[in-house]
Specification:
Length: 170
């Protein structure tokens, strides 16, 4: 299973969401390969930090792939029955984003519920995904994931009970 987090906007939570997905998949016994397709290499640094802290699972592999060709090659190489391949790209429109889409079985689109994020998410589903689908000739499902819910915010009345629990527990 190959999953990419994609949106041509910075800071919506792509890398954080992929780290969460990696944790869940590892816990369920899958081998996880994280492909770091972001030139800033934040994921690679994270994996290095885990290693130094003696907290990196053996079944978590990090592959640095900063060109479309490297991303496609790594995704194909590490994809198997009992593995999850996660592709992280930077929040901008570039060939790495397209390579991630092209290689994936499903795309997660993290958004904060704000106009800019929603607009960027719709660009992915209405423009870039159809391009990838046309090129590779098979469908590509996408899931929008709302991130950064402000449950601590006093305005979130519906969540006041949960907020009280969080505040009581620091
Ligand atoms: N669900 C969340 N709740 C609260 N904060 C979050 C959440 N997800 C991400 N963040 C915070 O938002 C910031 C940006 O997150 P992240 O680096 O995952 O975004 P990104 O989309 O990968 O950014 P970039 O496009 O720069 O790679 C970070 O400070 C992160 O801790
Ligand atoms: Mg990121």
């Amino acid at each position: 299973m190959i999953i990419s987090a994609a949106i041509a906007k910075g800071g919506t939570g792509k890398s954080t969401l992929l780290r969460a997905l990696a944790s869940v998949a590892l816990k369920r016994g899958y081998a996880v390969t994280l492909i770091d397709g972001d030139v800033r290499q934040n994921m690679s640094r994270w994996a290095q930090m885990l290693k130094e802290a003696g907290n990196r699972p053996e079944t978590l592999q990090l592959v640095s792939a900063t060109t479309p060709r490297e991303i496609l090659k790594a995704a194909e190489l590490h994809n198997s029955e009992r593995s999850v391949v996660l592709i992280d790209t930077e929040g901008t429109t570039n060939d790495n984003l397209m390579a991630g889409l092209f290689a994936s079985d499903i795309v997660v689109v993290p958004i904060f519920f704000a106009l800019d994020d929603v607009t960027a998410a719709i660009q992915i589903t209405d423009h870039y995904i159809p391009l990838a689908v046309e090129t590779r000739g098979r469908p590509l499902p996408a899931v929008f994931v709302l991130t950064k819910q402000t449950i601590i915010d006093a305005k979130a009345r519906a969540l006041s009970e949960l907020r009280a629990i969080i505040q009581a527990n620091g």
